[in-house]
């Protein structure tokens, strides 16, 4: 497939600088909290409970046998290889989801979290620690149904949705973005049809990035742009966003290359300055290309900080980091790199400064706009028709 030129997706370079804030880590050590058996589990609640581990989770790049914990995002061998903060963040279940079929008119959920800190100052508990439920309509399109609103501590148990119209459907549930999970079950009224559906076998889109890729500050787990694009493109997705720590590190890149991806999306600029962009981009791409010669790679510029219009320091950082990424892209193309794509940061969040929660991290509107900006590039890289075709 012929490579897209940078200029198709980067028509102009505005005098805007990159600004980023390191997004606070929510879970403490990544170690499971003590989890006494919930009294509710001792009761006859009239529900049949189904453990996700019986059929499988989607959004994890390695098999269960190489994981230290079932819902981790990196394999056990990564501990001590990647930096400790990256390892701890990999305990978050961001990007993971599970599918099941049921004819139940009500669905409950119970799960154990790694941290009892359910929310953050700028991100609600529904996004940090909630379970987000979608159902497929008659045309097979996933549509939102409900989100579980966690309360209390690490142990969660309660109704997810009631009053569903009768009929058998496929459901997809997205896991917490900024918390980890050690146990997850879904309950349906006794006697209801229920069948877990294993992960799709297609090659996944793999995202490596920052707190924004990680999911900050989506209101619920189905709203970060990787999840939106998973639904639009119908492709499994692996989210390797590490809050404040998407730094184009070769240790992480080597792990990425172990995943037989359909596309690698490298979206690290919000966490690194121009000097690091210049030093790390070419080695990272060359490593991926050496290990995965034909897999498309998408380089993404940083989003525009919402207050950059009034802060020269922000505009300067954007200008310098984007210029460094452009130079690296051009050098790679000159060196014969194939299947290399580029996404401009100018319009990732739009131009009205309304698409963030705190000036840095997208709100739901911002994530929708990011998905809109990335979708044409990913369709081209995947060989899919345009969305309006």
Can you describe what's shown?
With 389 residues, this protein is an alpha/beta fold. It is built from 9 helices and 14 strands. It has helices at 6-9, 84-89, 125-129, 211-214, 225-233, 250-256, 274-291, 312-334, 364-382; strands at 47-51, 97-102, 107-113, 132-136, 142-147, 155-161, 169-174, 181-189, 194-197, 205-209, 237-241, 263-267, 297-300, 340-343. The strands form 3 sheets. A 5-stranded antiparallel β-sheet has the order 5-4-7-2-9, with no helix packed on it. It has a 5-stranded parallel β-sheet with strand order 11-10-12-13-14, with helices on both faces. A 4-stranded antiparallel β-sheet has the order 1-8-3-6, with no helix packed on it. The radius of gyration is 21 Å and the shape is globular.
Q: How many beta strands in the DSSP annotation?
A: 14
Largest sheet strand order: 5-4-7-2-9
Determine the strand fraction and express it as a percent band. 15-25%
**pLDDT average, as an integer?**
91
Q: Could you give the order of the helices and strands? A: HEHEEHEEEEEEEHHEHEHEHEH
How many angstroms separate the termini? 19 Å
Number of helices: 9
| Main sheet record | 5 strands, antiparallel
Helix content: 10-25%
Q: Which structural category do the helix and sheet elements fall into?
A: alpha/beta
The low-pLDDT segments are 1-40
> Could you say which overall geometry the principal axes of the C-alpha atoms support?
globular
Radius of gyration: 21 Å
